[in-house]
Amino acid sequence: HESQVFTLPEGVSLEEGAMMEPLAAALQAVLDNRPDTGEQVLIIGAGVIGNLIIQALRGLGISCSIAVAEPSPFQAELAAQAGADHLIKDGDILGGASNITGARAYKPTLGPEILMGGFSKIFDTVASNTTLNASMRALSTGGTLSVVGIEANAKIDLTPLWLKLQTIKGAYIYGYNTVDGGRKHAFELAIDLVKQKKVHLEPMITHAFSISDYSRMIEVNLDKGRHRAMKTAVRFV
């Protein structure tokens, strides 16, 4: 629809334009679960959306501590470059949360460990059974979990939800937001951040292929770590 068309301003490349949609999705997730100054934030998964959530937080000038849980050395490296303060690379989200936030781990008579304390805001871009359950156990009392990833049949233990009075929010695509007293679409905000060089999108496209080389593109996507790939794209010219 014509209302969904946004003009790229001078100085914003076509490559950046191709990445504007995932940036808008990441921005919307941040705006729906915006941390306050000084909060401790965890992002689970440092793929495209996870990386862009880091950049969105930094681009919006939010002074919070950002931890990222990501086992891939390449993606963890890019997360640090994007502005992450702490990296959890061994898959031990609860252990990392305890070390970073000072939370205390308790082992109930039944069930896995749970933290008292932890991160006040978590963005789970993976949303697997494992990460969702770890998220809720690493989330502080009164904290908010933003479920950014998509998992159709997730099974979670709701004990932390009522025990720690938590909030779980869904995050899906983008819309209009009230920002600085005005109403703007997430795409407009994304374009502004890129134009002002507060978010850097071109380095996110690590590989570009012609449409005839689609099989090679699929091969690279299936093993991004080995190929040091983040976002792959088709170039038509």
What would the keywords be for this entry?
37% helix; 6-stranded parallel sheet; alpha/beta; 237 residues; two-stranded antiparallel ribbon; 10 helices
Notes on the protein architecture:
- The chain is an alpha/beta fold and 237 residues long.
- 37% of the residues lie in helices and 23% in strands.
- The chain is built from 10 helices and 12 strands.
- It has helices at residues 14-18, 20-32, 48-59, 73-82, 93-101, 129-138, 159-163, 186-195, 214-222, 224-227; strands at residues 40-44, 65-69, 86-88, 104-106, 114-116, 119-124, 139-147, 167-170, 176-179, 182-185, 205-209, 231-234.
- The chain has a 6-stranded parallel sheet with strand order 3-2-1-6-7-8, sandwiched between helices. Strands 4-5 form a two-stranded antiparallel ribbon. A two-stranded antiparallel sheet has the order 9-10.
- The longest helix is centred in the first third of the chain and has 13 residues, at 20-32.
- The radius of gyration is 18 Å and the shape is globular.
- 38% of the residues are buried.
- The model has no long low-confidence stretch (mean pLDDT 95).
- Strand residue percentage: 15-25%
Contiguous uncertain segments of 5+ residues: none
| Derived structural class | alpha/beta
Query: What is the CA-based Rg, rounded?
Result: 18 Å
**Main sheet specs:** 6 strands, parallel
